[in-house]
Amino acid sequence: MSSENTNSENSGRGAASRAAARAAASQKSASRGVGTGTPEKYQSRIGIDYSIEYPESFAQAAADAGAVPLLSIRELGVAYTTRSGEPSAAIRDVDLDVHAGSMTAVVGESGSGKSTTAGAVIGLLAANAQVTSGEIRLSAHGDAPQLDLRALSPREWQKVRGARIGYIPQDPGTSLNPLKTVGANVAESLRLHTGLGSAQRRARVLELLDRVGIDRPQMRLEQYPHELSGGMRQRALIAAAISLDPQLLIADEPTSALDVTVQKRILDLLDELRREAGTGILFITHDLAVAAERADELVVVRDGVVEEQGPARRLLGRPESAYTRRLLADAPSMQTLVGAVGPVRAAEASPAPASPNEHDPGRSEADRTDALSLAQESSPSPGPSGSAPPLVEVRGLTQVFARVPREEDTADAADAATTGALAGTAVHNTAVHDTAVHDAAVHDAADPRTATAPSSPDATAIIGIEDVDFTVPEGTTLGLVGESGSGKSTIGRALAGFSTPQSGSIRVGHYEAESLSKRELRDFRRTVQLVHQNPASALDPAHSVGASIAEPLRNFRMGSKADRADRVAQVMERVALDPGLASRRPRELSGGQLQRIAIARALVIEPRLVVFDEAVSALDVTVQSQILDLIQRLQEELGLTYVFISHDLAVVRQVAHTVTVLSRGRQVETGPVEQVFAHPEDPYTQRLLAAIPRPLDTQVLDLQALSI
Amino acid sequence: MSTVEFAGADSRSTAQPPARGRKGSRRSATRTFFTPGTIIASVLLGVTIIWALFPGLFTGHDPVDGGDTAALLAPSAEHWFGTDQIGRDVYSRVVHGASRSLLAALIAVGVGLIVGSAIGLIAGSRGGWVGEVLMRIVDVLLSIPALLLSLTIVIVLGFGIVNVAIAVGITAIAQFARLSRSQAVTIMQADYVQAAYGSGGTYWSVLLRHVVPNAVSAVLALAVLQVGSAILQISTLGFLGYGAPAPTPEWGLIIAEGRNFVATAWWLTVLPGLIVMAVVVSTHRLGTALRKAAE
Where along the chain is composition biased (Basic and acidic residues) (chain A) (predicted)? Predict the structure, then answer.
């Protein structure tokens, strides 16, 4: 290699290094034709024939023939040097292999060293981190030699990153340069690594965008990242990652920021890529369900040490480590599994298998059926004799921020996808508002099972909510489910008195929440409390957590100063926190503790209704499970009524009695939770349920047998 | 019983890593704060403050009455900065002038800080037409050149060091208002403000309990930064003759008086000028470091 041409060792993205790399690339192209890969491979992979199904055994055969893993990590240790001097180990003795065409998933909670592992593989660790021991080897590929990734110089790294190892970052929202078009973003590594002219690059980017399933690539190429939905952006990032035909892809939580149906499509795409091209994937995730569903090999890490690893099938069937068992038990998706695999059985047989959750001791069956019967009354007619009127009654709630023409429905999506470029400019201006619709539409069309009627017959899509009705009987939980942008939080805000709806009525107890005077609103707040998604931002960093909990008491002038301290201590014990933590600042506590504090603050003035707005979405799975248990226990002890807003169906299934499903601002289905989940009537609900990761479809996971 | 164990497990498993990180970041923050530049700046500013408090410790000469000392002496061991046209020790005048200049700077910054942050915080947290009107008033203040504005105000209020300080303070209002407004706007969008309203808070209780404490560090950092430019502006006004009347030792005035002898006795302007410059640069350096630490 003519490495003396590469006159910059800077691995950053400065203009200087880019120019240098371009110079180097053009030098290379003079001697080798095209870039670092072989032109034939591009043709076969991304050319016109990519839609041909490769035989199932293809990837397997390639892996067997090679026998040498594509990526092999042995006893890897990474340490962060701290200011105090001695380095602290972030990961220790990590062994893992990625084979061609297979996926190895590294699973762990935040701070477990997952991302550090990925960073070590691609040579992009933080400045104060160092690989202290072990080896990382990338196998030979075509005419590219085997590499010891630890020994590479920055200049050598430039030829490996992008070209041989592709990287798919976590957050599609911030990983594309907002000042460049999608086309320019995707073309970046082509520009750096190959000598292709701009017309050739454009053609290649078109192929790539088409390859990753972006509809109308001609048009998308010219758009800016903000005009694309999250799923589309992630597709564009995948297109960029595979642009140079890497042998290994590193996917760092590629779907964590996405809705569940979008997540499914992205995971399907990754599956397709590795099946067709034999690309190995190192998949980093905190979501055991996702990993279990897709990966061939699982590596469970905790505190930088591998807890357990092995084939996904074995590891899920017979987990050996206690930690893996706990993760399995805590993952709400896993608990859904029993019901989801056998919905008929769950509905017909005794209800025991329908609620396999052993963490849920207090919720008796009678309780549940009682709730169901109450919920079935949720028609406008008043409740039956003997039962009190529901605590919350919402009628025709409407708050439309904008109406946008729905330019196409699922029916003509296939059309749009095939005509592609023709549609180009015609829909350009409307597409800005509704790219999510495209994304959904195209892939629904691709999936025959879900390509059924659209969820709403109306001609316009709305931003906001329209005509939402539901009731919540006292002492029960209503789950509000929907993808991002479905209007869940708008309902939550209206319920908690933070916004006044345009029309419709909200009755909570004896308050009409839509027409409160300023003084009534303050009283109303003693009845309804809202718990936010992110406890770290919902607590004032300048106050001690005790002061935060006491704030409602102070605002409502309840009790003397000493009384307040007592009540704060009581409520902290109630949420299972040591009252001694009251003097701490929010930044000194963990996410789970902060959410307990936020719940304590909501409970201290003894409200009747608590609205949880994605209250567990930002938490690790084990902490999430603890908080859900707490929420359920408090409901039993205090007879609270909950409205639980979440995008996570599994979580809602666990805590809710009745569930309302929202799609793009409209209510598509309401009913008792078991009924909706076992026999979804609306196609949207069906699609939502189908998208939940379901590890090992054929195998029913018997949680009781795990003895947890 | 079980609940306590529960919480214990929770804190053990999850609280430690952030705690460790925090300690590290605090240590690194102090380390980045104490660079050689900030240490020198603190020493210089410290000396000036001691001058202002105890001028008698640093000089034995009378700042106002030169007695029978020869005029326009060059700097020497006896008279560090030389003597002026009527034989007064210039170093002594600078030392005695420190208190007046620093006090005036503090008054100026205080006026700007209090009035400016009040305007900015209310504009940022109230929004609507109240915010619009307040910020347009601030825009008017910004549109007039600071020196021109302060000269006008001094003429209206009358000469004198305190009036000069107030005038300089008024010119600083706009900057404080803009900064505190942007802080308030950000803070008002935070979840904890919504949560405070949700727990029954009124506008004023939210403003005082949540917005002010969270905005204060950035605003105070700007205040330190402003001390330097206030000293400069006050000296400028003193130099132009709008400040303290003639015999008073005041930095601007000292330089102004020396101006007539620049060709023959350069030290009369250059040495006090260097002192003013050193103090201004020091406060600027500290203010910048504080602002970075606050972020």
Answer: 357-370
